[in-house]
């Protein structure tokens, strides 16, 4: 894994020089016979690449004057590459964007304001307004949601049933810890009940929301204090020390790829993840899995919300912005493209397409549609767009908690270090 500090310095350096390179333009340009070529990059697995390329090929057939060159990579490698391309004045014409990096790339004028010019052709008429608003920053629309997902617990139902645990009912955090410990014990503690969630900013965010707090404030500061973080890490540590959660060694090997995750490798029997990743977890695991909501000590608030699984953005310095915006519009609003893409990234953002596909869904796709339908009335408002530095905060959280898990820092020492370094990252 690339060191967080190195990645963050690369991103900052790239975005610092980007405005100076605006005159260079993007890679898109004219081809033979007036054809334009645009570049399109995303992160994800080989399976995601297959269906995405199918959707792009459909777009090219519908638009014979536009050629799309596609590239993809795993999440961390993707951001390293985009930072390097941006530093060279040549970011992808169309790129997938994460909420953690939206402020950084948007405020540095790397991304096109889709409220203006070529971006106006991207229709958001059939997208839930609350979801659509998540791509807006200071009145400028730097991104449009490509899919909707929400947080979940992905678990092996056979393992929990064998341990005598009923996962059909809501649980408190302590009830889930006890359940996960039973699963660990039933497997001789060789396969733990759940992957340690202390490293996950996504888990911390949901826990904070359940407790009336937020990860970030509207003005880009941390929405929680040292005591909040100490309580969250204490909770995660209770899972680990009771052997309900994974060992430090397994936790440190955690990878964003389902194939390389503890659950995917059958080192644990459950993992907190976004529901859109559930089908990939099941494929990696090789046996049926299920999804359910987060544990909560506040039955009136699950902490979950209607989340943009990822965004689509257009380069502000590409030479073929009309073609780029046309591709974005197609990927979020074309029914046939929606059918090809399925729920790999989450539910389609276009509500008409979503309703049609939900009625036809089978297998893991149906599980995701049904899960979000059950939660719909409980989903709260989306949080503010994370500030610049959110990507570094994610890695800092993971690195700091690993120090606790391995016993290299006490809980209080890790909390103090995190709060100090986080303030620097957010300046």
Write structural notes for this entry.
By secondary structure, the chain is α+β, with helices and mostly antiparallel strands. The protein is built from 17 helices and eleven strands. The protein is globular, with a radius of gyration of 21 Å.
List the keywords.
single chain; 427 residues; alpha+beta; six-stranded mixed β-sheet; three-stranded antiparallel β-sheet; 44% helix; 12% strand; disordered N terminus
In short:
By secondary structure, the protein is of the alpha+beta class. It has 17 helices and eleven strands. The strands form three sheets. Strands 1, 2, 3, 4, 7 and 11 form a six-stranded mixed β-sheet that branches. It has a three-stranded antiparallel β-sheet with strand order 9-8-10. Strands 5-6 form a two-stranded antiparallel ribbon.
- Specify the biggest β-sheet: 6 strands, mixed
How many extended strands?
A: 11
The helix tally amounts to 17
Approximately how much helix is present in the residues?
Answer: 40-55%
Question: Oligomerization state of this entry?
Answer: single chain
- The gross shape turns out to be globular
Gyration radius (Cα, Å) is 21 Å
Mean pLDDT: 90
What class would the helix/strand composition place it in?
Answer: alpha+beta
Distance between the termini: 25 Å
Order of helices and strands: HEEHEHEHHEEEEHHHHHEHEEHHHHHH
Unreliable spans are 1-14, 16-32
Q: Tell me the fraction of residues in β-strands, as a range.
A: 5-15%
């Amino acid at each position: 894994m690339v060191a967080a500090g190195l990645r963050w310095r690369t991103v900052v350096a790239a975005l610092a020089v980007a405005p100076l390179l605006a005159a260079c333009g993007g890679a898109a340009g004219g081809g033979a016979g007036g054809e334009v070529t645009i570049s399109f990059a995303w992160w994800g697995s080989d399976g995601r690449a297959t269906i995405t390329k199918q959707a792009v090929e459909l777009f090219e057939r519908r638009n014979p004057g536009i050629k799309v060159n596609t590239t993809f990579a795993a999440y961390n490698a993707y951001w390293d590459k985009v930072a390097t391309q941006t530093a060279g004045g040549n970011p992808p014409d169309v790129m997938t964007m994460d909420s953690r990096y939206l402020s950084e790339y948007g405020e540095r004028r790397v991304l096109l304001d889709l409220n203006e010019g070529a971006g106006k052709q991207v229709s958001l008429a059939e997208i839930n307004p609350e979801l659509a608003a998540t791509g807006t920053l200071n009145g400028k629309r730097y991104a449009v949601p490509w899919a909707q997902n929400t947080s979940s617990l992905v678990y092996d139902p056979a393992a929990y049933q064998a341990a005598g645990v009923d996962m059909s009912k809501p649980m408190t955090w302590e009830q889930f810890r006890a359940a996960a410990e039973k699963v660990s014990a039933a497997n001789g503690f060789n396969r733990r009940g759940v992957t340690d969630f202390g490293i996950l900013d996504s888990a911390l965010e949901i826990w904070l929301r359940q407790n009336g707090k937020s990860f970030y404030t509207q003005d880009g500061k941390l929405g929680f204090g040292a005591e909040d973080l100490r309580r969250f890490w204490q909770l995660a540590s209770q899972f680990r020390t009771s052997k309900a959660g994974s060992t430090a060694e397994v936790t440190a090997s955690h990878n964003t790829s389902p194939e390389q995750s503890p659950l995917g490798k059958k080192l644990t029997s459950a993992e907190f993840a976004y529901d859109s990743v559930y089908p990939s977890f099941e494929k990696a695991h090789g046996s049926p899995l299920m999804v359910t909501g987060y544990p909560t000590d506040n039955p009136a608030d699950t902490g979950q919300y209607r989340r943009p699984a990822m965004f689509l953005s257009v380069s502000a310095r590409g030479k073929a912005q009309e073609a780029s915006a046309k591709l974005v519009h197609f990927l979020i609003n074309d029914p046939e493209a929606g059918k090809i893409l399925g729920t790999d990234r989450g539910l389609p953002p276009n509500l008409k397409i979503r309703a049609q596909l939900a009625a036809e869904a089978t297998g893991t796709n149906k599980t995701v549609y049904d899960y979000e339908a059950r939660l719909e009335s409980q989903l709260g408002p989306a949080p503010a767009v994370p500030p610049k530095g959110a990507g570094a905060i994610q890695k800092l959280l993971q690195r700091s908690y690993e120090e606790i898990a391995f016993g290299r820092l006490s809980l209080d020492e890790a909390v103090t270090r995190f709060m100090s370094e986080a303030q620097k990252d957010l300046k």
